[in-house]
Amino acid sequence: MRSINLDTLIAAFAGIETITDPHQVAKLSQDYHTFSPVLVPKLEGKVGDIVVRPANEQEVLKVAAICAKYRVPITVRGAGTGNYGQCVPLYGGVIVDMTKMQEILWVKPGVARLEAGVKLAALDKKARDLGWEMRMTPSTYRTATIGGFIAGGSGGIGSIQYGLLGDRGNLLALKVVTLEDEPRVIELRGDDVQKVNHAWGINGIITEVEIPLGPAYPWVEVIVTFDDFMTAAKFGQALGNTDGMIKKLITIFASQIPQYFHALHQYLPGGTHPAFLMVAESSLESLPGLVQQYGGQITYQKPAFEAGKGANLGEFTWNHTTLHARTVDTSITYLQSMFPADPQLQLVEHLYNYFGDEVMMHLEFFRVNGKVIAGALQLVRYTTEKRLNEIIAYHEQQGVLIANPHTYIIEDGGRKVIDPEQLKFKEMVDPYGLMNPGKSKVLQFKIKN
């Protein structure tokens, strides 16, 4: 890649918001990879040279043309809520901050079209005014952008009903700008969206997204506590399989984890294993019978009309669980796991007992190919990288899929391999290998040479 004078770039970007202050540039070169003690030293000091904030698609095209002309690396970011260093630039260059592109283009029954920088909470608010809502959101939905969610996310609150973001039908269309000598705008629809979905920003600059919506229900938040972890886990799976009840969140915590939830302490008796739930108001009447069947106790209930007031249970689940724990103890890190379908949750039980206090179990139930699956974002008491790798290896030997959050290489994370269709698409849209270079094993040789 060519070296280039920064003044030349600044002049070329005239008319587009540009940030050169070193502190701001460094801040906008980071994400939440600090959750991983393995990634922190590997990504230390990795910053861009300049940040640009395009306000519209025409400005994105201009940025792309300049970067292609001067062969400057480009790293696209939204709010930077990802956890794997996806938006940390390994080779400097230009950071493209998409957060100014905030227009919700339209919302219709069951579908919405929006620019990449729209915050998920803003879309949800607009959609709910029409009786619809996002099918799934990460726990960072207040700040996360739709472009960042598509490029780096996988699922979240709502996945118990609708599956994962990569499942067919959960993403309808994308617009991307290419990094060719003469950049183009390409629209992908149907299965072609997978050429860019969860590609960590290596396959074009996402400018617009079209997603399906789900019916908006009044959601009630509930905490149920259990004296035994596996009883709590089996309750969670049973609720997930109760198709007549409408639910948005089923999270189960081992008893060590509630100590990190200061705002909820009064509802979490010591030594108990809580379930955090979001169920539709119309399904609430059916919940106590299931709770009683599994010997649980409802300790907290927030009615739907109080949504947005006080603590929001969703912001203690998914990746926010790790955030809360690390606020108390920065030595804690985490895993991301998917257990095989198992009505008895035998593997969950084995690993819960095998690792004990070293790996604190945190389950998130979601749907995969029509089946309710136990995923996990276990909290790990970190000691050494060697021990962390042993923990990961043991999980994998038992048949648990680990989406490794301690690597910034796509193939070493959840993907294991890059989709050949994504590689073919990249060759077309990014012929000089300028987009987020260094994040793929397959592409590194090209970048270095």
From TrEMBL:
Any one Gene Ontology BP term: lactate catabolic process
A GO molecular-function annotation: D-lactate dehydrogenase (NAD+) activity
Regions annotated as coiled coil: none
Pfam families: FAD_binding_4
FAD-binding PCMH-type domain span: 43-216
Protein's name according to its UniProt entry: FAD-binding oxidoreductase
